[in-house]
């Protein structure tokens, strides 16, 4: 349908008062949905939610087309609207993203209800469609608010993270928990459980124990390779490699509130990762190390390429935090820093008795590199 044409069977003129309510609330609902969609897209990186909000916005536009558009426009009288000056103090105050979301969801729901009630006078089909949209909004909005609290908190901690430690499951659970405590005290921001020697049940139990202790210590807890175990143990996220389950499928298992990390070994993989729903990338291997053997080392040249790629993208919502990985420790951290990296992941270097000193020394060097904090968002 050409939106400029008025296809409504205009066998009657509706009062301007009714048309003004419909016109104002159609605009209000569409604007509210767009605000929420932009939040899901640019602030929260919540791709599935973004597309659900977009579909709702399009369905609303289709329903509104059932109204006599010319009558709506003729009735519009913004200058004569006594409500335009009747603003409240709270309308001008949005201190954080969560605040924007709760204001947006509330406004949109109210506008949809008005559209539905007044729409019944003009077009019953339109009112019925809006009612369905309102019901769908309840679910999507509930999820959006949860992502804001949990996912938003995780993402903002990820944005600030510099030191990422990979650990195994230890001799037993107590030993692993002690190790986590020591690393957290040394300022490590993220800890990954990477242990391919444990059976699934033991890995799951270690993952659950890690979720509890890292939650208390304020450290992010990531499970290597296993989206199922990350989801079952309520970990903060999962890390996968290029030969493992694709990020989109991992996302289906862990949901939009979890962190998903992806390994990259060349600049094409980095660009692909930035176009995916991955929340961060590992870049390596930089140097030979004791944890894993490699045939090829993209090294510091690769890190320089990634740094250039990130700084060339003006819209930082199109990049992700990047952690250099592979053989990194106190002895070579200067080279990583010179390549422009302010974040690293380490395994072998933080496995010994001096792990806390290494973590602290590495962190001090990394802090000389500014890290982009794109949203710089306060999701309190
Ligand atoms: C932070 C981080 N970066 C890279 C990796 C490596 O993942 P992957 O390529 O899947 O190799 P494995 O660790 O599974 O052997 C990682 N685990 N963490
Ligand atoms: C598991 C792993 N993945 C890498 C990659 O480049 O993807 S490097 C690596 C080993 C990390 O341990 P260490 O710090 O002991 O070298
Ligand atoms: Mg892997």
Structure description:
This protein has 380 residues and is an alpha/beta fold. It folds into two domains: 3-153, Ferritin (Up-down Bundle), CATH 1.20.1260; 161-366, TIM Barrel (Alpha-Beta Barrel), CATH 3.20.20.70. Helix content is 53%, strand content 9%. The chain is built from 13 helices and eight strands. The chain has helices at residues 16-43, 47-64, 69-75, 97-122, 124-160, 173-185, 200-217, 227-232, 247-254, 267-274, 299-312, 333-338, 355-366, and strands at 163-167, 190-193, 220-224, 237-240, 259-264, 280-283, 322-325, 344-346. Strands 1-2-3-4-5-6-7-8 form an eight-stranded parallel beta barrel, surrounded by seven helices. Helix 1 (16-43) packs across helix 3 (69-75) and helix 2 (47-64) packs antiparallel against helix 5 (124-160). The longest helix is centred in the middle third of the chain and has 37 residues, at 124-160. The structure holds the ligand Cc1ncc(COP(=O)(O)OP(=O)(O)O)c(N)n1, ligand 3NM and magnesium ion. The site of the ligand Cc1nc(C(=O)O)sc1CCOP(=O)(O)O has 17 residues, from loops. Magnesium ion (MG) binds at residues 224-225, 240-241, 244. One of its GO terms (biological process) is thiamine biosynthetic process. Pathway: Cofactor biosynthesis; thiamine diphosphate biosynthesis; thiamine phosphate from 4-amino-2-methyl-5-diphosphomethylpyrimidine and 4-methyl-5-(2-phosphoethyl)-thiazole: step 1/1. This is Thiamine-phosphate synthase. InterPro entries: Aldolase_TIM, ThiamineP_synth_sf, ThiamineP_synth_TenI, ThiD2, TMP_synthase, TMP_synthase_cyanobac_bac. Residues 20-142 form the ThiD2 domain.
């Amino acid at each position: 349908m050409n939106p400029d044409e008025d296809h409504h069977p205009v066998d009657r003129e509706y009062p301007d008062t009714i048309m003004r309510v419909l016109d104002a609330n159609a605009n209000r609902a569409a604007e509210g949905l767009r605000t929420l969609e932009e939040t899901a897209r640019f602030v929260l990186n919540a791709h599935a939610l973004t597309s659900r909000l977009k579909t709702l916005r399009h369905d609303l536009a289709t329903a509104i087309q059932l109204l006599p558009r010319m009558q709506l426009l003729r009735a519009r009288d913004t200058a004569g609207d006594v409500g335009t000056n009747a603003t409240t103090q709270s309308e001008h105050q949005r201190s954080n993203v969560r605040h924007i979301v709760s204001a947006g969801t509330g406004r949109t729901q109210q506008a949809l209800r008005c559209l539905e009630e007044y729409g019944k006078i003009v077009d019953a089909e339109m009112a019925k469609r809006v009612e369905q949209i309102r019901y769908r909004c309840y679910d999507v909005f509930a999820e959006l608010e949860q992502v804001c609290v949990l996912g938003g908190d995780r993402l903002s901690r990820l944005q600030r993270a510099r030191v990422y430690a990979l650990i195994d499951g230890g001799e037993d659970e107590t030993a692993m928990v002690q190790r986590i405590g020591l690393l957290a005290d040394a300022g490590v921001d993220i800890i990954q459980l990477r242990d391919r020697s444990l059976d699934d049940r033991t890995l799951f139990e270690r993952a659950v124990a890690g979720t509890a202790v890292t939650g208390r210590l304020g450290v992010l807890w990531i499970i290597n390779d296993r989206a199922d175990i990350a989801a079952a143990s309520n970990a903060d996220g999962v890390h996968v490699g290029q030969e493992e389950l694709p990020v989109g499928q991992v996302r289906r298992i862990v949901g939009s509130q979890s962190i998903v990390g992806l390994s990259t070994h060349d600049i094409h993989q980095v660009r692909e990762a930035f176009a995916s729903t991955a929340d961060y990338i590992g870049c390596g291997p930089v140097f030979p190390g004791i944890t894993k053997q490699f045939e090829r080392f993209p090294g510091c040249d690769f890190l320089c390429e990634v740094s250039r790629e990130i700084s060339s993208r003006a819209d930082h919502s199109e990049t992700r935090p990047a952690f250099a990985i592979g053989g990194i420790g106190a002895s070579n951290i200067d080279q990583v820093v010179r390549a422009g990296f302010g974040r690293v992941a380490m395994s072998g270097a933080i496995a010994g008795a001096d792990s806390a000193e290494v973590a602290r020394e590495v962190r001090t060097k990394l802090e000389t590199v500014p890290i982009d904090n794109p949203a710089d968002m306060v999701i309190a």
